[in-house]
Amino acid sequence: MAMLGGYCEGNSSIAQAWVQQGFQPCFFFTLVPAVLLSICLLLGALQYACYARFGRAMEPKYIPRSRLYRGQVLLSLLLALQPFGGLLWQGVGLKRLYGYMVLHACLWALSWGCAMALLQLEHTQVLAHDRTRGHGTVLLLFWALAFAAENLTLVCWRSPLWWWGLEDTNQKVQFGFWLLRYVCTFMLFVLGMKAPGLPHKPYMLLVNEEERDVENSQPLLTDASRTTSTWKDFRRKLRLLLPYLWPKGNHLLQGLVLFCMALMGLERAINVFVPIYYKNIVNELTMGAPWHTLAWTVCSYVGLKFLQGGGAGSTGFVSNLRTFLWVWVQQFTNRQVQVQLFAHLHGLSLRWHLGRRTGEVLRSVDRGTSSINSLLSYIVFSIIPTIADIVIGIVYFTSVFSAWFGLIIFVCMSLYLTLTIFITEWRTKYRRDMNTRDNDAKSRAVDSLLNFETVKYYNVESYEVNRFNEAIIKYQVSEWKVSASLGLLNQTQNLVIGLGLLAGSLVCAYFVTENKLQVGDFVLFGTYIIQLYTPLNWFGTYYRMIQNSFVDMENMFELFHEEQEVKDVVNARDLHLEAGHIEFENVHFSYMDGKEILQDISFSVMPGQTLALVGPSGSGKSTIIRLLFRFYDVRGGCIRIDGQDISQVKQASLRAHIGVVPQDTVLFNDTIANNIRYGRILATDQEVQEAARAADIHDRILSFPDGYNTQVGERGLKLSGGEKQRVAIARTILKGPRIILLDEATSALDTETERHIQASLAKVCTHRTTIVVAHRLSTIVGADQILVLKDGHIVERGRHEELLQKGGVYAGMWLHQQAGDEDESKEHHDEKPQGSKKG
């Protein structure tokens, strides 16, 4: 029969928090479950109310069936039952129970039961407008505090009241129970970051995906990546970020990183010594210390303040030195990310680039590279130092002053961080609504001013002014909510800081009156706490900025994760071009899994011959050009050049032998010379000019004031259509390919310009294998072979005269174009200039 003793063991009291170099077990095991249960009940009740009002039950088919989730439940259940195992051991093995043990078991079991209820709630229900898919703040905080409490027992390492000595069976059993709790709370904390019991995508997205086809849409990012919690899969995101913290291959920058880390550690030490020296100054003044001692202490204090800077090191010498050195690491990181991503984007397929908005891609690149630097700075030099200062403060006050001071700091800091994160998450919706209202107001103003004439035509100025006024009012309502919620956040933080400072100051003042502490200790506590809270004032800002940076970084890494659609096979060889013989054998192709663009296409182009492709729009003419250039891989069949399958050779070697003159020639915003030199980057000025002469544009270039140094403008807009085409032809001549592809190279030009360009193209294509996609049939009458495509099939093939004699599709197209040309010529002939009659 177990004997029931008092509430605490021996002659100890719950008021004795720190005895014999450690926490009093009675005090510790009463406080910890009480704090956990209070947090779970109070904040859990708010979460339950939120789900009761805005939540909905998920359909069973969308609820994840995860073994890791079952592991979460099992670990929680094990932790809830563990104290009763301790009671059983105390009662049966040692024959003695104390009141705090019974209370601890009850409160501990209730707190973990509450946590399991919240876990089940998040597993089966979802908020109607939930944009995150990670666990809620309450559970994450609960698991973090439970794990932190187990770590807090490590400060009692030297206390004989705890189990660390392993001197008898009881201590070994208690150590086993602690080890079980430590492992279980750690695993729950890690699993909580992964959230295995929650869907990987928001619930509404899962429902909508069954009702719409997402295969054909190609947004820059998936909806899941836009709506997934910022903190979900935190470990993976951190793993993506860490390589950029350590500059590989650059030993100088690696040394700078280590030196910056050392400076950050030095800042933490300085933050401890500044209040201590301030305390010493006060004590020496009150005790009448000698002048030289006081002067040395004051000089040391001022020197430390110089190193620390005002407040908490934000403008001190050490901080400024670290910031100055870190710039080089940031620049290296920025350069590495941008260059790698730029190279990766150039390696993606044409299909990917056609399906994306270039501006959106560039914004993701710009924001992503900036976000990596921001995240590194926020996490490494703001968040980690702040948390380190808190931990150091708790350990310092617990070991030097009393456990009560460490407890006050721990509770206040935990409450401060929890409320900051909770309120920041809550007020995000107001910020989002304000941004939406701001965009609406600006859109209305811009739309109205752009349509100024229409507003005047219909005399509705007052209507437009009233609409703009309504938009401004709605924006200001949202702006007030943002300001009010920010004021609530600031006041809540101020209240927590004030209560913590009040509690600590009262305890400190009490110990001073009892002669257990000195007046300087009171000053030290106040100085240290204010110094500790100063960076915490920015914690909400850091939290929000880290959220935004994580989203931007994810967007950029989504680009990195895009797979290259066209890849060189393993051990691909270079294309060895001998004559330029092109073969298409039973080629099939479709852009998406659906309708085939090309079906069973077979033809052969002998070396030096010209093949023309004609047919209505959408028949697959340009697709053949893109397949030969290997912008895409065929779905079936084979394409060969000189007997070599182009899918088995390196893309670079294939494209080095092919020259393309497209319909829409796009020039870089550079000089004419550099645009021509793009055909062969290392070409000399003389070779560039020879290529321009061959394209019949040399004289025209010399007529410009700056000659070959003339800037062509954005996309070559300063040049005419014919001039741009001649620059493109010169570029192709300079490249010197054996195979020429002309994709409707003259269809956008007028008849006279087209005639001159055709003469230049004829010289380029001499003795080269050429494939021409033609719109005007008059430009390909001399082709060695003409293929007529319709709906992805070759419906006719032969020379110009042969196809006319057949009287088929080609003949009909020819007659139609000839009739149109005759009408155009007649209209041009009938036009006469207007003049005045002579009297």
Automatic annotation (TrEMBL):
SMART domains: AAA
Reaction catalysis annotation: uroporphyrin III(in) + ATP + H2O = uroporphyrin III(out) + ADP + phosphate + H(+); protoporphyrin IX(in) + ATP + H2O = protoporphyrin IX(out) + ADP + phosphate + H(+); heme b(in) + ATP + H2O = heme b(out) + ADP + phosphate + H(+); coproporphyrin I(in) + ATP + H2O = coproporphyrin I(out) + ADP + phosphate + H(+)
Gene Ontology cellular-component terms listed: early endosome membrane; endoplasmic reticulum membrane; extracellular region; Golgi membrane; lysosomal membrane; melanosome membrane; mitochondrial outer membrane; multivesicular body membrane
InterPro entries tied to this protein: AAA+_ATPase, ABC1_TM_dom, ABC1_TM_sf, ABC_transporter-like_ATP-bd, ABC_transporter-like_CS, ABCB6_N, P-loop_NTPase, Type_1_exporter
Enzyme Commission number: 7.6.2.5
Annotated region (Disordered), positions in chain: 818-839
Domain ABC transmembrane type-1 span(s) in chain numbering: 258-548
Transmembrane segments: 27-52, 73-92, 98-119, 140-163, 175-193, 375-397, 403-424, 495-513, 519-539
Any one GO molecular function term: ATP hydrolysis activity
Intracellular or extracellular location(s): Cell membrane; Early endosome membrane; Endoplasmic reticulum membrane; Endosome membrane
Assembly and oligomerization: Homodimer.
Protein name: ATP-binding cassette sub-family B member 6
Organism field: Grallaria varia
Gene: Abcb6
